[in-house]
Amino acid sequence: MARYPTITEIAQKLGISHSTVSRALNDHPRISSETKQRVQDLAQQLGYQVNSSAHAFNKGESKTIGVIVPDLSIHFFAKVVRGIQTVLDQHGYCTLLFDTSEKMESEANAVSKCIAHRVDGVLAAISMETTSFEHFLKLSKHEVPLVFYDRVANFIPVPKVISNDYQAAFDATMHLINSGCTQIAHITASINLNNSNNRLYGYLDALKSAGMEIDEELIHYYHLQPDSIDTFIENLLTSHPHLDGIFVFNDYAANYTVNVLQKLGKRVPNDVSVMGFSDEPVATHMTPRLSTMKQAGDKMGHLAAQKILAIIQKQEPMEDEKIVINPELILRESTR
After folding, report:
1. pLDDT (tens digit, 9 = 90+) per residue, 307-328?
2. Domain for residue 276, yes or no?
3. Does pLDDT of 53 surpass 70?
């Protein structure tokens, strides 16, 4: 167990009161210079540090923000956290970080721990499993500000910082169409996720705008089960031999898709173009390098942190609001 020197310990060693030590450490004018020096010398010798948490709690705040992340192994979310911490550090706040590993139960436990630790606010992206949101509603009972980022619960009336997933998916699909693809599949994540659904809608509307037929057999929810992509593509190449384009929910699944296609004897992009989403490091480390929609993770983190601080400091109300960031089309060798 960690042991930290306390004001009480300094007071006992010097034979003075707790309040005198506290005032001496805070350079109170009523404490003599001699006493201040004695206190400060012993504090330095013992390695005493001010308990910032205690000071904050005395003011009715913790100076801590809970940050709930679905999967920190995804580089995009790591960039979001980095952006959050950059802003919070500048304002003297700490982060209480939770990786839910895409589990709703872990997400609910994270919210409970945020409440138990009396955080000043919560920044959250929902897990792929999340179908119920009562745990987030508990925050409002304790008047804890909540801001969602990337993956959001649309019906909860709080600020949300999101990518323009619909438009990005529309643009990605239109690029495949404009480059000559005539039969385009879409591999998406989960029907529970707003960004998954928005990317699906963007894909569908791009097909419609180009006068192309909607075929439900060309759409696959992979639910974080890569093996299902193998089966989907194998069956698709049999039922749709003219398949020549695939738009994929994220770059990790896109990399897996390229590997499956190559294993089945298909050349990327000569036979089938593949478009990803997010611009993860894997996009430039795979062969061929992946065309994708680049998300601004750092910017999303900055904006989410700035919004929660503005609410905590009562500079802005906590109201239903969407702050939208536009992804950027990045073209590489996986598309024609």
Report:
1. 999 999 999 999 999 999 999 9
2. yes
3. no
Domain range for 24 is: 7-50
CA distance 62 to 42: 28
Give per-residue pLDDT as tens, 201-210.
Answer: 999 999 999 9
pLDDT score, position 155: 92
Shared domain check, 260 and 315: no
Strand-pair partners of 160:
148, 322
The answer to whether 264 and 233 are in contact (CB under 8 A) is yes
As to burial, measured by CB atoms within 10 angstroms (0-12 exposed, 13-18 middle, 19+ buried), residue 236 is middle
User: What pTM, to 2 d.p., does this model score?
Assistant: 0.85
Q: Which phi and psi (to 5°) does residue 282 adopt?
A: -60, -25
Residues in the chain, overall count: 336
Residues with Cβ < 8 Å from 320, sequence gap 6 or more? 157, 158, 159
Residue 105: both structure tokens together = 């139960």
Whole-angstrom Cα distance, residue 219 to residue 196?
Answer: 12
Burial class (CB in 10 A: 0-12, 13-18, 19+), 218: buried
Looking at the fold, whether 101 and 80 belong to one and the same domain comes out as yes
Number of H helices, E strands in the chain: 13, 12
User: E-assigned strands of 189-316?
Assistant: 219-221, 245-248, 273-275, 292-294
Give me the residues paired with residue 316 across strands: none
Q: How far is CA 45 from CA 10, 38, 57, in A?
A: 10, 11, 27
What kind and span of H or E run contains 17?
Answer: none
* Residue among 276, 250, 266, 256 nearest 329 (CA): 276
Backbone phi and psi for residue 298, each to the nearest 5 degrees, phi listed first: -60, -45
Interval 124-150: pLDDT, tens: 999 999 999 999 999 998 999 999 999
Give the CATH number, domain containing residue 263: 3.40.50.2300
Angle separating helix axes 7-14 and 33-46, nearest 10 degrees:
120
